[in-house]
Amino acid sequence: xxxxxxxxxxxxxxxxxxxxxxxxxxxxxxxxxxxxxxxxxxxxxxxxxxxxxxxxxxxxxxxxxx
Length: 66
Prior knowledge:
The protein is of the alpha/beta class. It has helices at 16-29, 39-47, and strands at residues 5-8, 32-35, 55-56. The longest helix is centred in the middle third of the chain and has 14 residues, at 16-29.
C-alpha cells in the first residue's frame, strides 16, 4: 500500500455530493487524509455517519477565519 493521499478540502462545498465522493475515494484507495476541512464539512461527515471512514490529516482542520 502506498503513502497516504492528503487532499486539501478547504475550498470544496460542504454538501452531500462532496462527502459521497470523498467516501467513495476513501473506500477505493483506503489511504485518503483530509486536510483543511471546514467545520461545516466535518459536521456533515459526522451527520452522515462517516466520521470513522474519512480521516483527517493531523492538524487537518481549517482554522476559523475572521
